[in-house]
Amino acid sequence: MAAEDDDKPRRKTSHDIGQDLSALSVDDLNERIALLTNEVERLKMEAAKKRASRDAANNFFKS
After folding, report:
1. CB atoms within 10 A of CB 18
2. Phi, psi of 8 (to 5 degrees)
3. Which helix (H) or strand (E) holds 25?
4. Inter-residue contact 13 to 33 (CB < 8 Å)
5. Is residue 18 in a domain?
6. 41, HSE (Cβ side, Cα atoms, 13 Å)
7. What's the structural domain count of the chain?
8. Overall average pLDDT of the 1-30 stretch
């Protein structure tokens, strides 16, 4: 039976902000925490890139 489960495509994990969490298992919750943590890091990196670009432009035009 386990081999049959391995053949099934895994459902892509997603999370909607504010959704009901009561039906999720601990493993599901941990998976979503990891997903959201990675997304927060991605957002921070993008914000840093945009700040650096803005700062470079500001420095160029101040000269």
Report:
1. 6
2. -75, 140
3. none
4. no
5. no
6. 6
7. 1
8. 82
